[in-house]
Specification:
424 residues; alpha/beta; seven-stranded mixed sheet; seven-stranded parallel sheet; globular
């Protein structure tokens, strides 16, 4: 019988609707990050760096790009005969077919997969956070405290605490109270959505709660374990951790990579972030260009000026173009004599010549001000924008556009243009 001390279950089926058009055609964990990575690379790299060689990845929403990125796990050394990485979509059972309806429901539906490895411990991870963590140290803490459930937690500003599951602990870090997104938090120690369960405890809880609609760890499983008198402990984490769930936090996390002394360092030898890399030529930087404090991906050709920006792989930037405080994703083409300020341009876009984006006054977005804000201009993947277009702040575009789509070749601040077939 196969025996693994600890296996990881990685939840990667989320839509990530607060990322707007960036997740129209892909799950949030597949969204590019940092010029050459995808968000899911971070928990996968953490697993192999922590000595975990068996990872089940649960996918559901728009999984095509994610599945093709993960493949058989070669970049993370997870192509193993026993263990390795396994993509686990929902599947048809003999009685009925069922989508994953909650985080813990997804785990319950894969109980047979977990039993194959007869683990002592199961590590539950989310596929949409940017951080580096040694899960082996967390497992040592779990063993030392003789814990049934260990929750990774970190201090957050008190005013943000109500967005999280909040834990209250005693002096030994044992959890005495757990509140899921409380209106009035009694602590600022927030659950990071990273759990280590002793296998018997996890199996008992998800089996007992299996008929609970939208079975969730924060709402159901953790309170159940607490009520049943299980030993719950908080493992306090003090490093960099970013939930890139909104466009602004996603933009911010990318911009933090190019700080003079970045809080989150992609270049550490001892804790590498692995990814599926295309075979690309080196970057080409033409004469007369200027690049300041930016990341430029492999295979990119730069003829313009780039400042404080993250440029993906295979990007082309035309001469006379100035890009500031922006994210340009893989294989996008930016024309000549353009000015881009605070833009997020998704993959495979074509921006015409003489286009100005991120100009004008600050006006709230007319369709989704909670998504498209902070002066960002967002362009969905495969979009084509015509020459000489002027786009204001807090705008979103997705689709193929011609000059006839715009009144006077201008798109005022706060406007949304999403062509039919492009979900918002």
């Amino acid at each position: 019988m196969i025996k693994k001390e600890m296996i990881a279950m990685l939840l990667a089926g989320g839509q990530g609707s607060r990322l707007g058009v960036l997740t129209t055609h892909m799950a949030k964990p597949a969204v590019p990050f940092g010029g050459k990575y995808r968000i899911i690379d971070f928990p996968l790299s953490n697993c192999i760096n922590s000595g975990i060689d068996t990872v089940g990845v649960m996918t559901q929403y728009q999984p095509l790009k994610l599945n093709s990125h993960i493949g058989i796990g070669i970049p993370w050394d997870l192509d193993r005969n026993i263990g390795g990485v396994t993509v686990l979509p929902p599947y048809e059972k003999n009685m009925h077919s069922e989508w994953y309806t909650g985080t813990a429901n997804a785990i319950y539906q894969n109980i047979e997969y977990m039993e194959t490895y007869n683990p002592d411990y199961v590590l539950i991870l989310s596929g949409d956070h940017i951080y580096k963590m040694d899960y082996e140290v967390m497992l040592d803490f779990h063993k030392q405290t003789n814990s049934d459930v260990t929750i990774a937690a970190m201090s957050v500003p008190m005013e943000e605490a109500k967005r999280f599951g909040i834990v209250i602990t005693d002096e030994k870090r044992q959890i005495v109270e757990f509140e899921e997104k409380p209106e009035v938090p009694h602590s600022n120690l927030a659950s990071m959505g990273i759990y280590i369960f002793s296998w018997e405890t996890l199996k008992e809880a998800i089996t007992a709660l299996k008929d609970q609609p939208s079975l969730d760890f924060g709402k159901h499983v953790i309170p159940y374990c607490h009520e049943k008198g299980k030993r719950l402990f908080a493992y306090e984490y003090n490093g960099y951790w970013k939930d890139v769930g909104t466009l602004h936090s996603y933009w911010e996390a990318n911009m933090e990579l190019i700080d003079i002394i970045p809080e989150f360092n992609l270049y550490e030898e001892y804790w590498r972030i692995y990814t599926k890399s295309e075979i690309l030529p080196p970057q080409f930087i033409a004469r007369g260009t200027a690049i300041g404090r930016s990341i430029i991906g492999e295979g990119s050709s730069i003829y313009g000026e780039i400042y404080n920006s993250v440029i993906g792989c295979g990007v082309k930037v035309g001469s006379g173009t100035v890009i500031r405080d922006s994210i340009i994703m893989n294989n996008s083409v930016i024309g000549s004599n353009c000015t881009l300020d605070k833009c997020i341009i998704a993959e495979d876009c074509e921006i015409g010549d003489r286009v100005i984006m991120g100009t004008g006054e600050e006006v709230p977005n007319d369709t989704d001000p909670s998504i498209y804000n902070n002066s960002l201009v967002t362009v969905g993947e495969h979009s084509i924008l015509p020459n000489a277009l002027r786009v204001g702040k807090n705008c979103v575009l997705a689709g193929t556009f011609t000059q006839a789509d715009f009144d006077g070749l201008s798109m005022p601040s706060g406007k949304s243009m999403i062509k039919a077939g492009e979900a918002k």
